[in-house]
Fold this protein.
Amino acid sequence: MSEPEPRDELPPLPDDVQAYVDAFAARQQPPPRQQESTWAAIEEEIGPPPRRVGMLELAIVVAIAAALVLVFSLRGDDLQRDVDHPRNQASWASEARESAGTAQPKRATDRSPERGPARREPPPPAPPTPVPQTPSEAPTAVPPSTPSPSPSRPPHRTRRPPSSPKPSAAPEPAEPSLAEELALFRRATLMVERDPARALELLERHRQRFPQGTLRTEGQVLRARALCALGRTEEATRLRDGFIAQHPGSALATRMRSVCR
Amino acid sequence: MGKRAKIEQIYRDHYAFVWRILRRLGAPAVDDAVQEVFVVMHSRWQEFDLSNGARPLLYGIARKVAAQQRRKHERQPPALALVRDAMVDPEENSARAEAARVIEATLERMDERKRMAFVLVDIEGMSVPEVARCQRINLNTAYARLRAARQSIQQSVRRHRAREESDHVRARAPR
């Protein structure tokens, strides 16, 4: 025997009573902004979303790791060149001594007792005379006290002058800017519920500073949430619908769908 | 879809339902109670059966959470709740506000089991069999509770209308 549906068993409420019930039901809605802040509180208890944040952080870690590998590989190259450098210096010194005579020995004496730190200093002043060559003279100028790097020396030495304008200049800013983007974005996320207007400011700053930033798509979702929290529902829904049309299969589209609903 | 994503989806779909139910169940701090419902759902996910939909399950959790909250806090007097509601939207049409207050006051006076039968069927649109499953009661009992609740509501509405009419007549009567 199937269970009867209530509408079959019970007559509908009379119209006048139904009007009262409708008036009551219309008032039974949670405050519009409460849903997101309650969810944020739930998230605090059950933990952050593993999927999206995990992927985001993975991307950040990979980017940082790549930047570090790049920096260190270039530094390594640089160090090898630095190790070579005294020899160049020595050969230049010997050349200079042959041609001009005095003043040069001072450098040679500085270098010989404390090779490590002294070696770091020379690279910037060295390039001004970028035609050292004559590798054959090196062993004579500096005693064979320099350690292992010697086998790889000849090819590096020829390239040394052009590489002196520090190749690390390119990747190094990438690392702080990523961290900076993340920090700015986190602040905006925190502000969405507490102070959506402030969140919008931060998101705008984020958009201007990182137009091609890693978090720009996530930023759109956050922006829609902030707009909705501010009661700017038209803008929020426009942004939401545009985003969903543009990224229908995106994981963020799921979150975006709940904005202003 | 993982557990967390499912819970988030259920939250998005049924937040308003849970909020209203908790309010009707007399939870003193509704937002905290909503949070608690979903935290419980997360922590005991393995025990739950969603084959009948999320609402019966959410109702079951909400009922327990509200009962716990009520035990902890002193229950808010209904009159105060009504006053606060009236202040929420001062521009609301006064006739509708008055009608809403009649229902609210009647529900407040009603036994919780009848009240919830009415709320779940006539406000939340659930079927009586669903309500019977939610409340773990016999189907006939569910119908009986709903009938009784409706009867109270109808009586209150009729009384209110009669009073309004007599006020209206009195106001128009020559002095």
Notes: Chain B touches chain A through 48 residues (CB under 8 Å).
